[in-house]
Amino acid sequence: MEQVRRQVDRLCWSGILLGLAFTMTNVQSFAANGAEAWSLPWLAAWLLDPMVSLVLLAILRAEQVTARYGIRTGGWVRGAKWFTLAATYVMNTWGAYAARAADMVVLHSVPPLVVFVAAEAVTDLRDKLTAAVRAASVNADGEPVAEPVVPRSPDPKRRISFDEYLGRAREAWRPDITVTPAWIREVTGCSRGLSSRLAAALIEEVEQR
C-alpha cells in the first residue's frame, strides 16, 4: 500500500507538470501579443506562465504536506489555487476562442482542465490511500494489530512535558504506521493543539533514520 501511494503521488505530479509545460507556449503567445521574436516584450512573455505555474505548484505542495498532518488550509489558499488555474486556462484558450475554432478550444482546454482536476484529486487521493494503509495494518490472522497501551502519569496533576509525549509516540510507532495528529492523540493522550507539533517532530525523526 505504501508503494502504491508513492506511485500514485508521483504519477499525479508528473501529469500536473506535463500539463503546465504544455500550456507554456500558448500563454507566451498570449502575452507576447504579436511582438517580434527575441524582442524584449517577446522574451518577457516567457516569464508569465512560469510565474503562475510556480505559485500553483507551491500551493499544491503545501496542501499535500498539510494534508499529511491532517491540517486543512483556509479559503485564501483554495482561492489562490483556483485563481492560478483559471488564469492558466483563460490565457491558454483565449486565441482559440477568438478564432472560434472549436477543435483548438478543445485541444487547449484539456491540459489546464487535467491540471485542475488532478490538483483537486491528489490531496484527497493521498488521504484515502493513507486510510487504506491503516486498514491494511493487520496481522497474519486477519485481525487488527493491537495498539500499544498508553502509559498514564501516576500523578494526574503533574504536567506532562513535550519530550514525554514524544517518547510515548516514539515507542508506539512502527514502520507500517503513518504518523498523523489523530494517531498521536490516540497513542499519547495529548491535546489537539499539541498533536500537530508532536506529529511533525516524530516524522522528522523517522525521515532522518
Could you write a compact summary of the structure shown?
It contains eight helices and no strands.
- The rough form would be described as elongated
Could you tell me the radius of gyration in angstroms? 23 Å
Please estimate the helix content: over 70%
Overall structural class, as computed from helix and strand content, comes to: mainly alpha
Helix tally equals 8
Major sheet size, sense and barrel closure: none
Order of helices and strands: HHHHHHHH
- What is the beta-strand fraction? under 5%
- What is the CA-CA span between the terminal residues? 21 Å
How do the strands and helices of this protein lay out in sequence?
Blueprint: H1 2-32, H2 40-45, H3 48-68, H4 75-98, H5 102-135, H6 162-172, H7 181-188, H8 192-208
Helix pairs in contact: 1-3, 1-4, 1-5, 3-4, 3-5, 4-5, 6-8, 7-8
What tags apply to this protein structure?
single chain; 209 residues; mainly alpha; 8 helices; 0% strand
